[in-house]
Amino acid sequence: MNATPQRHVLITGAAGGIGRALVEAFYADGYHVIATDIASRPEWLPPGQTWLVADLARLVREAAYADAFLAEVRKALQQPSLNALVNNAAVQILADTGELDLADWQTTLDVNLSAPFILVKDLLPELEATQGAVVNISSIHAAQTKKRFVAYATSKAALSGMTRALAVDLGDRIRINAIEPAAIDTEMLRDGFSDNPEGLAQLEQYHPVGRIGQQEEVARLALILCGDSLPFANGSCVALDGGIRGRLHDPD
Fold first, then answer.
1. What whole-number distance in Å separates Cα of residue 9 and Cα of residue 50?
2. Least CB-packed of 47, 157, 180, 207 within 10 Å?
3. Which residues pair with 238 in a beta bridge?
4. Which secondary-structure segment (H or E) carries 17?
5. Which helix (H) or strand (E) holds 93?
6. How far separated are the first and last CA of the chain, in Å rounded?
7. CB neighbours of 105 closer than 8 A, spacing ≥ 6?
8. Is 9 helix (H, G, I), strand (E, B) or coil?
9. Domain 8-239 annotated CATH 3.40.50.720
10. Of all helices (H) and strands (E), which one includes residue 48?
């Protein structure tokens, strides 16, 4: 009897709350996880998994840096195949349009949009070898946003659009989908409401389900989209929003 081949997944932005949930979900499902972030290797990383420190803005701007990072990924694979890529890394820089620094605008687009494209493009042979899957972690801000989110919302709208376009362009070579979460219970979100607990409670109640989402819910959906149970899902941008997208407005 032949042993089941080891499955491999590359997850970006692995140090954050959703990133950790993704790493733990894919590890629990039997994947070898290649996790990457600008932060150093965390103590919670499961045994036997790979951690690569990477600056995705540099990956976009410096070809030599990108080549070196991709070489590290391929070394970690130990075979020319990749089953899944989860583009989770993102930066969120908030500013009014008149105050938004051009460098911050460019960094947002580099990390949130261009880096996912480069990883799909350059790892396409490895993904094709397994007819693998890509999941881009987009946002409800791809379609509905608030004041001061112009850079972030633009990057996520483009990421969702790129997901649909890549699915058309690549056909049946790989599958590529996006998840568009609403508010998710992360440390970053709670820090933003540290001086406004009433605002957090109001945000929870504005979601028709009466709460915000959990990091593990994003991870479970990504795992499903990367698996074999929904092969017809391609070019989909899946809302994970507790029904809030159907409301007329969300409090600032």
1. 10
2. 47
3. 179
4. helix 17-28
5. none
6. 58
7. 151
8. strand
9. yes
10. none
- Write out the H or E segment, with its range, that includes residue 130: none
Query: Could you tell me which residues are beta bridge partners of residue 86?
Result: 11, 135
Structure tokens at 16: 């954050």
Longest CA pairwise span in the chain (Å)? 65
- pLDDT of residue 248 exceeding 80: no
Within 8 A by CB and 6+ apart from 23, the residues are: 11, 14, 33, 35, 45, 46, 49
Rounded CA separation 38/41 (Å): 9
Instruction: Write down the pTM of the prediction.
Output: 0.96
Per the structure block, which two tokens stand in for 40?
């150093």
**Is 152 in the active site?**
yes
Q: Which of 27, 31, 65, 152 is catalytic?
A: 152
CA pair distance 98, 95, nearest whole angstrom = 8
* Residue 45 near residue 69 (C-beta atoms within 8 A): no
Nearest to 71 by CA among 123, 149, 143, 8: 123
The model's pLDDT over 4-17, given as tens digits with 9 standing for 90+, comes to 789 999 999 999 99
pLDDT in tens, 175-221: 999 999 999 999 888 888 889 999 999 999 999 999 999 999 999 99
Task: Of 226, 238, 219, 137, give the one whose Cα is nearest residue 174.
Answer: 226
